[in-house]
């Protein structure tokens, strides 16, 4: 199937590894020109044909800087993939083990900075170009937005806000030719799960548990009907489909192996 993305220009945030890197590779395979934003350029990203832009999207000014550099490099933006969302592990570990009374503002602020404010600010900066091009915003959310009490609560609440942002962009900009779609993965085999020093590994450590056993138990507890977690490449294909021209807007595409049970 031709996704009709060839020749178009994309910006992918958090494109240096994990899901973002898989999205970068998939969109390049579709014939797109791609700017990939992250704080560092990994060898894997450098090996692609993407244009890397190093920027800290956890800051108030990073988003505008990224969009300015992306527009200079690409001429305009047809597809914005707001993939950045997991930053440093510490606030997520606190958010998973401390209750509301114990969790300080800083944990909420650090989480919201990258999970909600970064997509909001990048979207806002990219909107003039997206309107010009009839573009699309794909927000990479999480099944956590629908199972808010399982896992790091500030992260899940910020992802719920991101889902709402998708709806707002779809509603306010639909008549101007811009679409917005949420892609909501359950657990994905990135460093978050597979690196013993990643979020799950750190969560095991603070509870005095052994990493691989804890990771297996945590996956089982999430209750995926398929019995497995997703690959970054599977999520990337869904992002490409969401970005492909269609009449889909304001919608949420879940890829969670059946973790979210409610209708
Ligand atoms: N993995 C999962 O199980 C899972 C499940 C549901 C949803 N998701 C969502 O999928 C998305 C990607 O997750 P992932 O697992 O692929 O994460 P990851 O492997 O940790 O990759 C995160 C990416 O974001 C970049 N990044 C982090 N902080 C940044 C900052 N301040 N400024 C700019 N870039 C920054 C990282 O590059 P640098 O470190 O070089 O900056 C990297 O490219 C996130 O939105 C996440 O919430 C993941």
How would you summarize the topology of this molecule?
Elements: E1 9-13, H1 18-29, E2 33-38, H2 43-46, E3 51-54, H3 62-74, E4 79-82, H4 89-97, H5 105-133, E5 136-140, H6 153-173, E6 179-185, H7 191-194, H8 199-206, H9 211-222, H10 232-243, E7 252-255
Parallel strand pairs: 1-2, 1-4, 2-3, 4-5, 5-6, 6-7
The chain binds NADP nicotinamide-adenine-dinucleotide phosphate (NAP).
Description:
The protein is α/β, with parallel strands linked by helices and 263 residues long. It has one domain (9-252): Rossmann fold (3-Layer(aba) Sandwich), CATH 3.40.50. Helices cover 47% and strands 13% of the residues. It has helices at residues 18-29, 43-46, 62-74, 89-97, 105-133, 153-173, 191-194, 199-206, 211-222, 232-243, and strands at 9-13, 33-38, 51-54, 79-82, 136-140, 179-185, 252-255. The chain has a 7-stranded parallel β-sheet, with helices on both faces. The mean pLDDT is 96. Bound molecules: NADP nicotinamide-adenine-dinucleotide phosphate.
